[in-house]
Amino acid sequence: MRPSAIALTAALIMTAVPLAATSSELSVTVTQSGSAEPVTGAVISIATFRKVAPVSAEIYQQNRAFHPHLLVIPVGSSVDFPNRDNTQHHVYSFSPAKTFNIELYAGRPEAPIVFDKPGIVELGCNIHDHMRAFIIVTDTAAIGQTNESGQVTLAIDPKYAEGGEARIELQVWHPRLPDNTRPVVREVDLGQPANITLSLEPEPATDGSLDRLQQRFREL
After folding, report:
1. Residue 132 sits in a domain of what CATH number?
2. Engineering a disulfide at 30: which of 38, 39, 134, 189 sits with its beta carbon 3.0 to 4.6 angstroms away?
3. What integer pLDDT is reported at residue 173 of this predicted model?
4. What is the residue range of the signal peptide feature (predicted)?
5. What's residue 167's pLDDT?
């Protein structure tokens, strides 16, 4: 049985927190600039010497939405895009990390898409403009998403401490960054909790209505 995309994302994030015997940990808290509200779902990563093996995952379409909205996968992973709606979809990405186009289809595409470069991939549907999702393709094992309290704990490769480094760079990404095509970089001190603030765009308005073109494909 194919594991779900959510389970695979969770498994990848779990690798960011191995046993303390092999690494130290960095606790990160992310809040929103101006309000100090916790930021949920921010993706935090640190360059490491450890890599993660590719996985097979999926992002399915149901109720004219992508599920999950955000998927974190290692470089070289393959992602399937099954359509569970009775409406056809046309999935694409123009992102430099992966450009692809799955033309109008129902059911399951002929083959999964392989994501062979690290970066941020934004997904869209050429039939339903409101449909949007993101894939974070990573080449590091130290990566995770902030919880409802805006917190995440990452494993620090002990080689950093051995090298006498006192500070480390974090890459921080969120879909509502003003420029969400790239992460922002924050430098923090090792050995103490990190507090990061982000300036985010407002939540986008949602519109569940179907236009005429969407209606034509609803029963296909």
Report:
1. 2.60.40.420
2. 39
3. 98
4. 1-20
5. 86
Task: Give the chain's mean pLDDT.
Answer: 84
Pairing of strands 66-67, 60-61: antiparallel
The answer as to whether 189 is a domain residue is yes
Of 105, 139, 173, which residue sits at a domain end?
A: 139
Identify the helix (H) or strand (E) that includes residue 60. strand 60-61
DSSP 123-185: EEESS-TT-EEEEEEES-SEEEE--TTSEEEEEEPHHHHHTT--EEEEEEE-TTSSSTTS-EE
Do 59 and 88 contact (CB within 8 A), yes or no? no
Least confident stretch, 3-17, 46-60, 76-90: 3-17
Task: Domain of residue 191: give its range.
Answer: 22-50+144-201
Please indicate, yes or no, if residue 105 is contained in any of the structural domains: yes
> Side-chain half-sphere of 35: how many Cα atoms within 13 Å?
10
How is residue 129 written in tokens? 């403009």
Is residue 212 a part of any domain in this protein?
no
Reference 218, options 96, 89, 111; nearest CA is 89
- Poorest-confidence range of 40-44, 137-141, 185-189, 203-207? 203-207
**Spatial distance between the Cα atoms of 1 and 153, rounded to a whole number of angstroms:** 31
183 cis-preceded (ω within 30 degrees of 0): no
Residue 99: which residues within 8 A CB-CB, separation 6 or more? Answer: 93
Say what the pLDDT of residue 190 is: 85
- Two structure tokens written together for 172: 């921080």
